[in-house]
Amino acid sequence: MSYLKLRRISTSLTTLGVLSLCLLQPGHRVTGTLRLDPRAHIERGDRVEKRYQAYSERLTKHYAALVDAVKKNAPDLLVYLQPRGPILHGYQILPRIMPDVPVETHAHATPVAYSWPWTDRLIDNGWREIIHSEAELRRAAAIDSIERRAILERLAQDYEQHSRRLRNIHAHVQYNRLWQAAIAKDRAGYDRETELYTAVVERQELLDRLNRVHARFEPSRASFDSPLGLAEVSGSLRKREALLTRRIEGAMGDVQLPAFVELETLNNDWIFRVPVFTDIEDSDYVAAVKEIIEAAWRLKDGKIRYRVEIHVTYVSTDELYSEKGKPGIGQKIEVLRHLERFPSGSAILTTGARTTHVQADAIVLGPHPVAPWVLAHEFGHILGFRDRYVRGYKDLGEHGFQAMEVVADEEDIMGATAHGVVQRSHFLKLLERRVRPGSHPKAA
Questions:
Q1: CA–CA dist 72, 83 (Å, integer)
Q2: Pairwise CA distance, residues 102 & 281, whole Å
Q3: Tell me: the pLDDT tens digits for 203-236?
Q4: DSSP letter at 312?
Q5: What is the pLDDT of residue 234?
Q6: Sign of torsion, CA 290 296 297 299?
Q7: Which residues face 278 on adjacent strands?
Q8: The model's pTM
Q9: Are the C-beta atoms of residues 89 and 354 closer than 8 Å to each other?
């Protein structure tokens, strides 16, 4: 699969990315002689995955021993140790839509990196925590009942942290498997993305430096910090920042608006009408998704109003499949073959993925809860926008690749999905694909 196709599979690991980036670290590297072996990422990944499986089995044994001790000595604490059932994915399985709560914003995104060595480090940390908990459980068995209960209560309450750590490491394993394989398959494409990544990071460093220069400026100080010196330094930095911005926008700014999107103008309203086929049987759920997306993709600019209107057409499973091949609720499906069954000339909203993502012109829902802004972000891909974050890489030789990510625009819904918004520039780019030059609306 080419880079151009893989980058459209955005939130298949946007969901995993949100889960895992909390423990990613910027710029970690592995030193040593690089070995340009195309299988290095697979071999290294196999070793890490074996360690992850051993770690998972060790945690399972600890859980069983802890449950047994709690049952015998403090059964009321079992409430903290309820087993977490597996998250099932399949046909007609719908993710819960989470409340639309404010998300803390950041001045800019910090570059993050992930690799097999870093995943190994997370496993090492997890091992240490399990060993400590096992020791505490053995100590509880050898002391009096009052102190024993205190230890068991602490271990029971801490188990959820063990469980979260395990899920996070699993997310890292899956993330590395996907993107390191993609890098190995399309080195040329990711070489270009790495150049773009470098430009985004350098631009942010220049902006940070400009902020520091202005913050340090005091009129009473002489020489370098004089107004003339400040203007000279600022001018040089801003010229470089402008050059990098043009380069970044040239690489990221284009939009591939599908032919099925129609534009209609009514007085000061510019309306993009998007037909969507869906086989989701829950009509209330579909209506909620439609409302969320239309609310996000709406903007007023003076007297001009831009908006997206979604026109949903239900296609039943019976229409897509013969009676013999019709999937049941919860059944695993081959997503690509499933999408091929829909009529052409429309976007698609369907189910059956492991995680919510866009594939071709379809939003394919997974089982994990989704926030409204995730749905709005994914719909941006339907309109033809690419992600406004960049994924580059470093070759770590025998350790595979280090994948690196940075957000290019913290205010853009296609970059910082948790707090970015739909902007006027989005609609102007769409208009460039639908109206003749010079006929764009002008804000009053």
A1: 18
A2: 31
A3: 999 888 888 877 776 554 444 445 556 677 778 8
A4: E
A5: 79
A6: positive
A7: 314, 349
A8: 0.76
A9: yes
